[in-house]
Amino acid sequence: MKLKFNSPVILGFSLICVAVFVLDKVMVGTLMPYFTLGNVNTSSALSLLTLFTHVIGHASIEHLMGNLTFILLLGPIVEEKYGDSRTLFMMLITALVTGILNLLFFHTGLMGASGIVFMLILLVSFTNTKSGEIPVTFILVALLFIGKEVIESLNTDQISQFAHIIGGVCGSVFGFVTRPGKG
Question: Would you say the pTM of this structure is higher than 0.85?
Fold first, then answer.
């Protein structure tokens, strides 16, 4: 038996998240600001880049492991069904949309791949459907996961339920408009 790098986008993303987390610990927290969405200075390319890179940064080992568990479980299924480039595109769009909407509606920072996780959760429910069908699993997953986040948004905590919801909405949209295939 030999090892197979079966999901290059998902495995690459996961390895980057781990590398950034470990390097930030070695550098005593000086790296994480580049992977946290804060106040974006539109005249700074590095600042604008955090609209995408905030999904790579994680606040704690528990935060990182929680996200990577779902990403490594669901991501390869999505990547196999939709292809490497489409999976990467959907991840980038989800990061951008959650980043922009967070800037528009909140004055809080944003970090972590939770939006990507929720995009994958909703998108994976479309993996075995035909055109014109709405999977019952999608409806149930949407009600359970999005409903839970709406309820939890009433709590005061450091979790961005908004990013979770937007990630789920992105996954839903991708599920309805993107046809599976190696693209």
Answer: yes
Determine the number of helices (DSSP H) and then strands (DSSP E) in the chain.
Answer: 8, 0
Structural domains of the chain, with CATH: 8-177 (1.20.1540.10)
Length of the chain: 183
Residue with tokens 């005249």: 43
pLDDT digits (tens, 9 = 90+) for 133-144: 888 988 998 888
Q: What tens digit of pLDDT does each residue of 18-34 get?
A: 999 999 999 999 999 99
Handedness of CA 69, 81, 10, 96 (dihedral sign): negative
User: C-alpha angle 139/121/8, rounded to 5°?
Assistant: 145
Amino acid (one-letter) located at 183 = G
CA atoms of 128 and 130, how far apart (whole Å)? 7
Contact partners, residue 101, CB within 8 Å, separation at least 6: 162, 166
User: What's the CA angle centered on 92, arms 9 and 135, to 5 degrees?
Assistant: 80
